[in-house]
Design a protein that fits this description.
The chain is an alpha+beta fold. It has a single domain, classed as Alpha-Beta Plaits. The chain has 4 helices and 4 strands. The chain has a 4-stranded antiparallel beta sheet with strand order 2-3-1-4. Helix 2 runs antiparallel to helix 4. The protein is globular.
């Protein structure tokens, strides 16, 4: 079975350039993915967003893990998707929209 952690948050559409700028949140998440490729049990990471260009844009970061134990160990570590968001995304993330969900892949 594979396990995933999905992190959701929103930004205002006009802040998309800040999201993707050099040194911005996406840059930080790309660096985090490189780090995770060295972590036992890591199976992949994706960052996606809704297509709208007005209002709030939903961003989703999904990490995949070989089993629940690897996911639990990752969550207890010093560097997680959440810490990257806190360090690089705090100025652009809409307050009270950050949600983290751990799930088991069924199909």
């Amino acid at each position: 079975m594979e396990y995933i952690q999905t992190t959701l948050f929103r930004i205002l559409a006009e802040r998309i350039p800040d999201l993707v700028r050099d040194g911005g949140l996406i840059h930080g998440l790309e660096g985090h993915k490189l780090y995770l490729q060295q972590v036992d049990g890591f199976a992949g990471m994706e960052v996606t967003r809704t297509l709208n260009t007005d209002g709030e844009v939903q961003v989703m970061v999904t990490t995949r893990w070989q089993d629940a134990g690897y996911l639990a160990a990752y969550e207890e570590g010093a560097e997680t998707v959440q810490t990257v968001i806190e360090e690089r995304g705090a100025p652009i993330v809409v307050p009270n929209t950050h949600v983290v969900v751990d799930m088991e892949v069924l199909v």
